[in-house]
Amino acid sequence: MHRVLALYDTPPADGRVICVDEFGPLNLMPRKGKAWGPVRRPRRLRATYNRCNGVMHMLAALDLATGKLYYRIRPRKRWREFLGLLKALRARWPGQKLYVVLDNFSPHKHVEVRTWTADNDVELVFLPTYGSWLNWIESEFAALRYFALNGTDHRSHGEQNAAIASYVRWRNARAEPKTTFAPDSPIRSWTDYPANAA
Fold it and tell me: How many other CB atoms are found less than 10 A from the CB of residue 127?
Protein backbone atom coordinates (compact mmCIF):
# COMPACT_ATOMS: atom_id res chain seq x y z
CA MET A 1 0.00 0.00 0.00
CA HIS A 2 2.81 2.40 0.87
CA ARG A 3 4.43 1.80 -2.51
CA VAL A 4 1.21 2.56 -4.41
CA LEU A 5 0.47 5.71 -2.40
CA ALA A 6 4.04 6.91 -2.87
CA LEU A 7 3.73 6.50 -6.65
CA TYR A 8 0.48 8.48 -6.60
CA ASP A 9 1.83 11.27 -4.38
CA THR A 10 5.22 11.68 -6.04
CA PRO A 11 5.30 10.15 -9.55
CA PRO A 12 8.83 9.06 -10.53
CA ALA A 13 10.69 11.44 -12.81
CA ASP A 14 11.95 8.57 -14.97
CA GLY A 15 8.60 7.23 -16.12
CA ARG A 16 4.81 7.06 -15.93
CA VAL A 17 2.40 5.59 -13.43
CA ILE A 18 -0.34 3.58 -15.16
CA CYS A 19 -3.31 1.98 -13.37
CA VAL A 20 -4.57 -1.18 -15.10
CA ASP A 21 -7.60 -3.38 -14.50
CA GLU A 22 -10.29 -5.42 -16.24
CA PHE A 23 -13.90 -4.26 -16.49
CA GLY A 24 -16.76 -6.62 -17.12
CA PRO A 25 -18.04 -9.04 -18.02
CA LEU A 26 -19.80 -7.06 -20.73
CA ASN A 27 -23.02 -9.01 -21.20
CA LEU A 28 -25.81 -8.00 -23.54
CA MET A 29 -28.55 -7.36 -21.05
CA PRO A 30 -30.95 -4.60 -20.02
CA ARG A 31 -29.35 -2.43 -17.36
CA LYS A 32 -31.16 -0.40 -14.78
CA GLY A 33 -30.69 3.34 -14.90
CA LYS A 34 -32.30 6.67 -14.14
CA ALA A 35 -34.98 8.03 -16.46
CA TRP A 36 -38.04 10.26 -16.43
CA GLY A 37 -40.89 8.70 -14.47
CA PRO A 38 -43.55 7.18 -16.76
CA VAL A 39 -47.03 8.69 -16.64
CA ARG A 40 -48.92 5.41 -16.63
CA ARG A 41 -47.10 2.32 -17.81
CA PRO A 42 -43.62 1.70 -16.38
CA ARG A 43 -40.93 0.66 -18.82
CA ARG A 44 -40.26 -3.07 -18.38
CA LEU A 45 -36.92 -4.80 -18.61
CA ARG A 46 -36.89 -7.62 -21.13
CA ALA A 47 -36.04 -11.12 -19.95
CA THR A 48 -32.65 -12.49 -20.94
CA TYR A 49 -32.81 -16.16 -20.11
CA ASN A 50 -30.71 -17.11 -23.13
CA ARG A 51 -27.63 -15.10 -23.97
CA CYS A 52 -26.45 -16.30 -27.34
CA ASN A 53 -24.02 -13.48 -28.13
CA GLY A 54 -21.30 -14.37 -25.66
CA VAL A 55 -19.44 -12.17 -23.21
CA MET A 56 -16.74 -9.56 -23.81
CA HIS A 57 -14.16 -8.10 -21.42
CA MET A 58 -12.61 -4.66 -21.28
CA LEU A 59 -8.92 -4.29 -20.39
CA ALA A 60 -8.16 -0.69 -19.53
CA ALA A 61 -5.31 1.57 -18.44
CA LEU A 62 -5.40 5.00 -16.81
CA ASP A 63 -2.41 7.29 -17.40
CA LEU A 64 -2.10 9.47 -14.29
CA ALA A 65 0.12 12.05 -16.03
CA THR A 66 -2.62 13.01 -18.50
CA GLY A 67 -5.72 11.47 -16.93
CA LYS A 68 -6.54 9.69 -20.19
CA LEU A 69 -8.09 6.25 -20.40
CA TYR A 70 -6.86 3.62 -22.88
CA TYR A 71 -8.66 0.35 -23.44
CA ARG A 72 -9.36 -2.63 -25.62
CA ILE A 73 -12.32 -5.02 -25.63
CA ARG A 74 -11.61 -8.72 -26.09
CA PRO A 75 -13.62 -11.95 -25.86
CA ARG A 76 -11.30 -13.25 -23.12
CA LYS A 77 -9.01 -11.85 -20.41
CA ARG A 78 -6.14 -14.32 -20.24
CA TRP A 79 -2.46 -13.49 -19.85
CA ARG A 80 -2.17 -13.17 -23.65
CA GLU A 81 -4.72 -10.36 -23.79
CA PHE A 82 -3.13 -8.68 -20.79
CA LEU A 83 0.33 -8.91 -22.33
CA GLY A 84 -1.09 -7.41 -25.53
CA LEU A 85 -2.30 -4.41 -23.55
CA LEU A 86 1.11 -4.00 -21.90
CA LYS A 87 2.82 -4.10 -25.30
CA ALA A 88 0.47 -1.40 -26.60
CA LEU A 89 1.26 0.77 -23.57
CA ARG A 90 4.99 0.16 -24.02
CA ALA A 91 4.75 1.27 -27.68
CA ARG A 92 2.82 4.41 -26.67
CA TRP A 93 5.58 5.64 -24.33
CA PRO A 94 8.95 4.38 -25.60
CA GLY A 95 11.96 5.33 -23.56
CA GLN A 96 10.02 5.81 -20.32
CA LYS A 97 9.81 3.31 -17.50
CA LEU A 98 6.23 2.20 -16.84
CA TYR A 99 5.02 1.66 -13.28
CA VAL A 100 1.87 -0.43 -13.68
CA VAL A 101 -0.45 -0.54 -10.64
CA LEU A 102 -2.67 -3.64 -10.76
CA ASP A 103 -4.40 -6.30 -8.68
CA ASN A 104 -3.36 -9.90 -8.04
CA PHE A 105 -5.44 -11.48 -10.82
CA SER A 106 -3.53 -14.62 -11.88
CA PRO A 107 -2.94 -13.61 -15.56
CA HIS A 108 -1.05 -10.56 -14.27
CA LYS A 109 1.50 -12.88 -12.64
CA HIS A 110 1.98 -15.32 -15.52
CA VAL A 111 5.61 -16.23 -16.15
CA GLU A 112 5.46 -14.91 -19.74
CA VAL A 113 4.17 -11.56 -18.49
CA ARG A 114 6.84 -11.30 -15.79
CA THR A 115 9.61 -12.21 -18.25
CA TRP A 116 8.43 -9.64 -20.79
CA THR A 117 8.07 -6.84 -18.20
CA ALA A 118 11.56 -7.54 -16.82
CA ASP A 119 13.00 -7.21 -20.35
CA ASN A 120 11.06 -4.08 -21.31
CA ASP A 121 11.49 -1.67 -18.38
CA VAL A 122 7.98 -2.23 -16.98
CA GLU A 123 7.51 -2.60 -13.22
CA LEU A 124 4.38 -4.34 -11.97
CA VAL A 125 3.21 -2.82 -8.67
CA PHE A 126 0.69 -5.17 -7.08
CA LEU A 127 -2.07 -3.98 -4.78
CA PRO A 128 -2.43 -5.50 -1.32
CA THR A 129 -5.05 -8.21 -0.82
CA TYR A 130 -8.55 -6.69 -0.58
CA GLY A 131 -7.04 -3.37 -1.67
CA SER A 132 -8.74 -2.91 -5.05
CA TRP A 133 -10.01 0.49 -3.82
CA LEU A 134 -6.38 1.66 -4.08
CA ASN A 135 -6.46 1.29 -7.86
CA TRP A 136 -7.30 4.74 -9.24
CA ILE A 137 -8.94 3.26 -12.32
CA GLU A 138 -11.80 1.83 -10.23
CA SER A 139 -13.42 5.26 -9.95
CA GLU A 140 -13.22 5.59 -13.74
CA PHE A 141 -15.06 2.30 -14.13
CA ALA A 142 -17.86 3.59 -11.89
CA ALA A 143 -18.23 6.64 -14.14
CA LEU A 144 -18.13 4.52 -17.29
CA ARG A 145 -20.89 2.27 -15.95
CA TYR A 146 -23.02 5.28 -15.02
CA PHE A 147 -22.62 7.27 -18.25
CA ALA A 148 -22.22 4.55 -20.91
CA LEU A 149 -24.12 1.48 -19.67
CA ASN A 150 -26.80 2.33 -17.11
CA GLY A 151 -30.28 2.57 -18.61
CA THR A 152 -29.28 0.78 -21.83
CA ASP A 153 -30.39 -2.40 -23.56
CA HIS A 154 -27.87 -3.01 -26.33
CA ARG A 155 -28.72 -5.83 -28.75
CA SER A 156 -25.17 -6.41 -30.06
CA HIS A 157 -21.63 -6.12 -28.79
CA GLY A 158 -20.85 -3.70 -31.60
CA GLU A 159 -23.57 -1.38 -30.38
CA GLN A 160 -22.41 -1.64 -26.78
CA ASN A 161 -18.75 -1.16 -27.72
CA ALA A 162 -19.67 1.96 -29.70
CA ALA A 163 -21.40 3.42 -26.64
CA ILE A 164 -18.30 2.76 -24.53
CA ALA A 165 -16.02 4.25 -27.21
CA SER A 166 -18.20 7.36 -27.44
CA TYR A 167 -18.00 7.91 -23.70
CA VAL A 168 -14.22 7.34 -23.57
CA ARG A 169 -13.66 9.85 -26.42
CA TRP A 170 -15.80 12.42 -24.61
CA ARG A 171 -14.01 11.74 -21.33
CA ASN A 172 -10.47 11.86 -22.77
CA ALA A 173 -11.19 15.18 -24.49
CA ARG A 174 -11.78 16.65 -21.00
CA ALA A 175 -9.14 14.65 -19.11
CA GLU A 176 -6.87 16.31 -16.58
CA PRO A 177 -3.78 14.94 -14.78
CA LYS A 178 -4.49 12.91 -11.66
CA THR A 179 -2.60 14.50 -8.79
CA THR A 180 -4.28 13.82 -5.45
CA PHE A 181 -5.56 10.43 -4.35
CA ALA A 182 -7.85 10.44 -1.29
CA PRO A 183 -5.94 13.14 0.63
CA ASP A 184 -8.42 13.13 3.53
CA SER A 185 -8.92 9.36 3.69
CA PRO A 186 -8.64 7.83 7.18
CA ILE A 187 -6.31 5.20 5.71
CA ARG A 188 -3.48 7.72 5.80
CA SER A 189 -3.83 8.14 9.56
CA TRP A 190 -4.38 4.42 10.23
CA THR A 191 -0.90 3.60 8.95
CA ASP A 192 2.59 4.97 9.39
CA TYR A 193 2.62 6.11 5.76
CA PRO A 194 5.64 8.47 5.43
CA ALA A 195 3.57 11.41 4.11
CA ASN A 196 1.94 11.71 7.58
CA ALA A 197 4.93 10.91 9.69
CA ALA A 198 5.96 13.84 11.85
Answer: 19
